């Protein structure tokens, strides 16, 4: 219609509008889940994926796991699962493919069932137990049917275990790297007592009734397969005082595990090796009582540190009460003593000297520096005693005659009042005394002489002075 109101004819034309825009997807965030213990999969309710389309508000959304369509609730095992989605509107416009992920983690370690504690008693004479290492009895994992198992020491290896408690540690590792741990104990016990070795001991005693005795290892020893130094206890103990004779000693041995050996005994014999001490008298000097000499008695004693008084076991040679002859020397008496153990003392000795009981010359002969005056050629009786009749073998040879200076005056001169008739010099016993008849020589007239009588006992010469006249 123009300005004047003119209206044209009606003309019609068709316009077609096409929907060429694909829907837009609203994707959820990625999801992550931890498996609980004993869960092999996680049941997941999938989130809703929305499609926005200005033309088709009910655009269809399709989601897949791989090539398979998903359901509202699905089980997922460990791992990362990609869910891909597309949307298509009624016009057939298809959106781009979009993804979100569902991550399921296995965070539970395998469970190990371990053997019970193993107790092993060592056999005699063995120090270690050859143990074949056992692994876990069972290993359970909800996800991994065969976790990797490792033990220290290694499973099925031979472990040499000594006395004590040993811990065997094992691990199980699943495919997700979770590690479970377990352990068990192997207790090795020493139940064998030490072996005690005892040998009888003999020692020499000292200068006392008792002595300290220490046990050498050669006599008292103990061995044990496990304990290298078992403790040995003895009664009496080593170092104790032991008397002379044989003493029984009882011993036991104990190892570190507390095992005691059966008590056993050995003997300690302390020998008496000390000889007695002999006590002899001082040297004895006595006088002859007869022609054979003198019977002399003496007392010799002996003592012993063990046997005590062993005087009764003294032996002397010659024995007490023996007759000792008159000699120019001495007699040696040697004594020994033997104790009850048979120990013989060292010899002890003393001397016995037997002399004549000479008391000087009797009248008519004077001694003491007096010159006895007699006629040359006369026989002068020189009288003396020796304590009785000692026989006629009392002189040590013929008396000795030597010349001496005559006195200047008569003061020391005494006349011999008695002479006898004899042709030779000689000794006799007249029943009460000895008489040595000295036959002088007439040629000795005018001389002064000394007569020396030597006795068989070795004593000094018995002398008298004489002045012989015509």
From TrEMBL:
InterPro entries: HYR_dom, Ig-like_fold. PANTHER family: FI04643P-RELATED, HYALIN. Pfam families: HYR. It comes from the Bacteria. Keywords: Repeat. The keyword Repeat applies. Residues 183-272 form the HYR domain. This is HYR domain-containing protein. NCBIfam families: rightmost.
């Amino acid at each position: 219609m123009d300005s004047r109101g003119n209206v044209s004819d009606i003309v019609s034309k068709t316009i077609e509008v096409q929907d060429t825009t694909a829907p837009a997807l609203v994707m959820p965030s990625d999801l992550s889940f931890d498996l609980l213990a004993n869960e092999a999969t996680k049941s997941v309710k999938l989130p809703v994926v929305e499609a926005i389309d200005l033309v088709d508000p009910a655009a269809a959304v399709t989601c897949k796991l791989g090539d398979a369509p998903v359901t509202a609730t699905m089980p997922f095992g460990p791992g990362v699962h990609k869910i891909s989605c597309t949307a298509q509107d009624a016009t057939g416009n298809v959106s781009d493919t979009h993804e979100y992920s569902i991550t399921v983690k296995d965070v539970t370690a395998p469970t190990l069932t371990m053997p019970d504690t193993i107790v092993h008693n060592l056999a005699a004479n063995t120090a270690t137990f050859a143990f074949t290492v056992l692994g876990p009895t069972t290993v359970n994992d909800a996800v991994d049917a065969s976790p990797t198992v490792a033990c220290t020491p290694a499973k099925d290896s031979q472990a040499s275990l000594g006395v004590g408690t040993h811990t065997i540690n094992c691990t199980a590792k699943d495919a997700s790297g979770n590690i479970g741990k377990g352990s068990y104990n192997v207790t090795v016990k020493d139940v064998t007592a030490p072996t005690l070795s005892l040998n009888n001991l003999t020692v020499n005693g000292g200068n006392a009734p008792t002595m300290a005795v220490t046990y050498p290892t050669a006599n008292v020893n103990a061995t044990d397969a496990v304990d290298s130094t078992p403790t040995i206890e003895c009664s009496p103990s080593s170092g104790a005082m032991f008397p002379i004779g044989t003493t029984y000693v009882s011993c036991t041995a104990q190892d570190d595990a507390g095992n005691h050996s059966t008590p056993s005994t050995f003997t300690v014999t302390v020998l008496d090796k000390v000889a007695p001490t002999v006590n002899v008298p001082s040297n004895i000097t006595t006088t002859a009582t007869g022609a054979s000499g003198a019977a002399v008695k003496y007392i010799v004693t002996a003592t012993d540190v063990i046997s005590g008084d062993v005087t009764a076991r003294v032996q002397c040679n010659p024995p007490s009460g023996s007759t000792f002859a008159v000699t120019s020397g001495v007699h040696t008496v040697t004594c020994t003593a033997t104790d009850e153990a048979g120990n013989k003392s060292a010899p002890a000795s003393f001397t016995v000297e037997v002399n004549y009981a000479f008391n000087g010359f009797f009248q008519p002969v004077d001694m003491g520096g007096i010159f006895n005056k007699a006629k040359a050629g006369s026989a002068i009786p020189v009288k003396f005693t020796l304590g009785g009749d000692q026989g006629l073998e009392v002189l040590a040879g013929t008396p000795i005659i030597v010349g001496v200076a005559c006195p200047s005056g008569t003061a020391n001169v005494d006349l011999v009042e008695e002479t006898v008739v004899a042709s030779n010099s000689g000794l006799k016993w007249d029943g009460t005394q000895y008489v040595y008849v000295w036959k002088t020589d007439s040629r000795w007239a005018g001389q002064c002489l000394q007569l020396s009588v030597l006795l068989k006992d070795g004593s000094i010469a018995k002398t008298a002075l004489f002045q012989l006249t015509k």
